[in-house]
Design goal:
heterodimer, A: mainly alpha, Non-ribosomal Peptide Synthetase Peptidyl Carrier Protein, Chain A, 3 helices, disordered C terminus, B: alpha+beta, BirA Bifunctional Protein, domain 2, 7-stranded mixed sheet, 3-stranded antiparallel sheet, 15 strands
């Protein structure tokens, strides 16, 4: 099974592939680093990494704010991830 | 809406003194109701002035070309009402004048190609037109009055303005004895099943509504840099962000009627708001 840190690495790779060099706290939607089409792909990626669907009540702005909030809310992140890991 | 429900809703408001409803979706106000609406609007305008807002007196129609640039006719063609002369000399003039659908569209063309070094605030009251399937007095009218306050600045200026506006309007409602709640809104125009726009609006709420008994009496909207980019408005070298606070005057009257009864003489004094 994929570890939380592997999931984080895959998330970072995907986001940086879409938006360029961003850090874990960059606001992805507010800063328009991710557009509406990419957002759909992001949701699908999270579902793929966790192996379970995201429920409608989990679609909260605070959870999708940054790489860090996605990691903490969906990918099993328990603590603050180290930048550049 | 069921026609009998509609007629009951209209009948319920016939006891409101000073409300003259026409089934075309328009209402005339007279007497104390008209005076109250004006005093309420002046309270909104005083708050705008306290922020440094400059007044703007808009024409009835948006300048030709502006609705297209704003994306209005693409997003909301079903709400549009065009102004058309009954007859002209050659009959070949294209129909290009859109009756104002929302007040703030008048603001951005006045700032086109400007370079600002600080946030700018403008305020205006406009008669707005929205075509609907069903019209109800004070609630859903073809033409209605909207007071807006618009902030043009950097993203943090707009965020700060919208937060202040939400708090101020909530405080007004408490003074007026109108219970409200703030709720983020998604545009019903987006179909959740097929539109990625719905997901973005849900996760990046750009619109908050001020709801009284389910009735949206105001809204607070961030347009991010859309109008700044469309009209080449720059702040400190960057495309300006814009945001607006909008208040539908007739709906405030309806919220007051529901809480305090049909006679505006007995309603809380709007002079105490700001």
């Amino acid at each position: 099974m994929m570890t939380a840190s592997t999931r984080l690495m895959k998330l970072r790779d995907w986001v940086r592939g879409q938006a360029g060099p961003v850090d874990d706290d960059s606001p992805l939607l507010e800063s328009r680093l991710i557009n509406s089409l990419q957002l759909v792909e992001l949701v699908l990626l999270i579902e793929e990494l966790t192996g379970r669907p995201i429920r409608p009540d989990q679609l909260l702005p605070a959870s999708f704010r940054s790489i860090r909030t996605i990691y903490e809310n969906f990918l099993g992140g328990q603590s603050r991830p180290e930048e550049g890991a | 809406m069921n026609p009998s429900v509609q007629s009951q809703a209209i009948k319920a408001l016939t006891t409101v003194r000073g409300l003259h409803w026409n089934d075309s979706g328009q209402a005339a106000l007279t007497g104390e109701l008209a005076r109250y609406a004006d005093r309420l609007d002046r309270a909104f305008a005083r708050w705008a002035a306290s922020l440094g807002a400059e007044p703007l007196l808009p024409p009835p129609c948006l300048p030709p070309g502006v609705p297209e640039r704003c994306g209005y006719l693409l997003s909301f063609p079903h709400h549009a009402t065009m102004a058309v002369p009954v007859a002209d000399d050659d009959g070949e003039d294209p129909v290009r004048s859109l009756l104002t659908p929302a007040a703030c569209y008048h603001v951005y063309p006045t700032l086109e190609d400007s370079h600002l070094n600080r946030p700018v605030f403008l305020t205006l009251r406009a008669t707005c037109f929205r075509n609907e399937d069903v019209f109800l007095p004070l609630e859903r009218q073809w033409s209605f009055s909207m007071r807006e306050v618009v902030c043009v600045g950097a993203d943090e200026d707009v965020s700060r303005f919208l937060e202040t506006a939400r708090k101020t309007a909530s405080a007004w409602c408490e003074i007026l004895g109108v219970p409200i709640r703030l709720d983020r809104a998604t545009d019903p125009f987006f179909d959740p099943a097929s539109s990625p726009g719905w997901l973005m609006q849900r996760l990046l709420p750009l619109k908050t509504e001020l709801l009284s008994d389910g009735l949206a009496i105001g809204s607070f909207n961030s347009h991010q840099s859309f109008f700044g980019e469309t009209f080449s408005i720059r702040v400190c070298g960057q495309p300006a962000w814009t945001g607006c606070a909008a208040f539908g005057l007739e709906r405030w009257l309806l919220a007051l009627i529901r809480r305090h009864g049909p006679d505006a003489c007995g309603w809380p004094d709007p002079e105490t708001l700001a």
